[in-house]
Write a structure and sequence with these properties.
Blueprint: E1 19-22, E2 27-30, E3 33-34, H1 35-41, H2 44-53, H3 59-71, H4 77-83, H5 92-104, H6 115-140, H7 154-163, H8 169-182, H9 189-198, H10 204-215, H11 223-234, H12 237-249, H13 268-284, H14 288-304, H15 310-320, H16 328-349, E4 366-368, E5 378-380
Antiparallel strand pairs: 1-2, 2-3, 4-5
Helix pairs in contact: 1-8, 2-16, 4-5, 5-6, 5-10, 6-7, 6-16, 7-8, 8-13, 8-15, 8-16, 9-10, 9-16, 10-16, 11-12, 11-15, 12-14, 13-15
Length: 382
C-alpha cells in the first residue's frame, strides 16, 4: 500500500494486446508486428486497420477501410463555423481539442460503447481530425478550409489540406512513414489519459479530447515544435553547436533527446525519420537542417550520453514538407488517433475503473481552536 513510484515509472497499469516497447530487443511491437517493418513496407491505412481491427488488412480490406474513411469525411459545417469564432492565434492543440469536443455533439450514437459503435466513431475521427488540424489552421490565418480529395491517399490528402498543394510521391511516402512512426507507442501520457477517461465509461470523443490536452505539453507532443524553434534559432551548424552548448551550460533542457522508456538507447523511430530527412535534403539540394541535426545529436551524445527521439528528426522533416510549425503537434495527434481509439475500445471491452491511491505527506491531527478563534486559525491536536 505504501509502494510509491513517482510518475508511475515502471508501474504496469493495464494489460493490452495493442502495442509494447520491447526495449530488450529494441523493438516497438504493434499487435505482434515490428513498427519499423510496418513503416518501411506498409502504408498508414494498413496500420490503422491493424490497430482498430486487430489484424493487418489485405488489399481488399485496405480499400474498404479507405472507403469507410472517405465516407465519414463529411465535416459538419457547424463545427468548422465554431472554430472560426476562436481567437486567431491560440495554440492549434486548443483548436483541435475544441473541435473534437464539438464533434461529439453531432454523433447520434454518442453513448454506444459496443465494439461496432466504437469502431464507427474511430473511423469518423480518423477521417475528421486531419480536417480539424488543417482547417483550423487555415481559418486562423484567414483562409478557407480545403476539402479532402477522394482520389488522394490518406497521407497525401492530409498534406494537401495543410499545404494547399498536391505532394510528390516522395513527400507522400515519407509523410506516410512519419504517420506510422507516430501511430502508436504503448502507454505514454496521452494514451494513459484517454484510458483513464474511458474507464469511467466516458465516450471516445471525450477520451480523445483528454489525450489532446495531454499531448499539448512540451514534455510530450509539443517537443517537435520546440525542436523546430531550436533549429530556426540556431540557423547554421555552428550556431547549433553554440546554442546547445550554451543551453547545457545553463542546465536547460534540450528538447528532442532522451525518453522515459528508452532511457539511453536509440529510439528506432528517430533513425527512420533521420533517413527521411536525408532523402528530402538530397532532393532539395540543401543539407543545412540535416547537418545541424547531426551536429546536435553528436554533442548530446558526447556530453549527456543521450540519443535523439522521434520528435528531433520529425521536426525538420515536417518543415521541409511545408507543414507549419504550429501544426507539428496536431499532426502527432492525428497520427496517434487510431492507436488511442484502439486503446479506448480495449478499455471499454475489458474495463476496470482507474482509481489509484496516494502517499499522503501532509499534516495530521489538526483541530479548530476550542473558542473558534479567528477564521481559518487551526492548532495542532494532541
Amino acid at each position: 500500500m505504501e509502494s510509491y513510484s513517482p510518475g508511475l515509472e515502471n508501474v504496469i497499469a493495464c494489460e493490452t494486446s495493442i502495442s509494447y516497447l520491447d526495449t530488450g530487443n529494441e523493438l516497438i511491437l504493434l499487435r505482434g508486428y515490428d513498427l519499423m517493418e510496418l513503416a518501411r513496407k506498409a502504408v498508414f491505412m494498413d496500420v490503422a486497420g491493424l490497430l482498430l481491427d486487430g489484424s493487418l488488412p489485405d488489399a481488399g480490406e485496405r480499400a474498404a477501410l479507405m472507403d469507410q474513411v472517405r465516407g465519414a469525411s463529411s465535416m459538419e459545417k457547424e463545427v468548422l463555423h465554431l472554430l472560426s469564432f476562436l481567437p486567431k492565434r491560440p495554440s492549434m492543440m486548443d483548436v483541435l481539442r475544441t473541435g473534437i469536443s464539438a464533434l461529439a455533439g453531432f454523433d447520434p450514437d454518442l453513448d454506444d460503447r459496443t465494439e461496432e459503435g466504437n469502431r464507427r466513431k474511430a473511423i469518423a475521427l480518423l477521417a475528421r481530425v486531419p480536417q480539424l488540424c488543417a482547417g483550423g489552421y487555415r481559418m486562423a490565418h484567414g483562409l478557407e478550409p480545403l476539402a479532402p480529395r477522394p482520389e488522394l491517399s490518406y497521407a497525401a490528402n492530409f498534406l494537401y489540406m495543410m499545404t494547399g498543394r498536391t505532394p510528390s510521391e516522395l513527400e507522400e511516402r515519407l509523410f506516410d512513414q512519419s504517420l506510422i512512426a507516430y501511430s502508436e507507442h504503448e502507454l505514454p501520457n496521452s494514451t494513459f489519459a484517454a484510458r483513464v477517461i474511458a474507464s469511467t465509461q466516458s465516450d471516445m470523443y471525450g477520451a480523445l479530447a483528454g489525450a489532446a490536452a495531454s499531448l499539448k505539453g512540451t514534455l510530450h507532443g509539443g517537443a517537435n515544435e520546440a525542436v523546430m524553434e531550436l533549429l530556426l534559432s540556431a540557423g547554421t551548424e555552428a550556431g547549433m553547436e553554440t546554442l546547445i552548448r550554451g543551453k547545457l551550460a545553463a542546465k536547460e533542457r534540450i528538447m528532442g533527446f532522451g525518453h522515459r522508456v528508452y532511457m539511453r538507447k536509440p529510439d528506432p523511430r528517430a533513425l527512420l525519420l533521420k533517413e527521411a530527412l536525408t532523402e528530402l535534403s538530397a532532393v532539395r539540394g540543401d543539407a543545412r537542417l540535416l547537418s545541424m541535426c547531426v551536429a546536435g545529436e553528436t554533442i548530446m551524445h558526447e556530453e549527456k550520453g543521450l540519443h535523439p527521439n522521434l520528435d528531433y528528426y520529425a521536426a525538420p522533416v515536417y518543415h521541409l514538407l511545408g507543414i507549419p510549425t504550429a501544426l507539428f503537434t496536431p499532426v502527432f495527434l492525428a497520427a496517434r488517433t487510431a492507436g488511442i481509439c484502439a486503446h479506448v475500445m480495449e478499455q471499454h471491452a475489458h474495463n476496470r475503473l482507474f482509481r489509484p491511491r496516494v502517499r499522503y505527506i501532509g499534516p495530521r491531527g489538526l483541530r479548530l481552536a476550542e473558542d473558534g478563534g479567528k477564521e481559518g486559525v487551526l492548532r495542532d491536536g494532541d
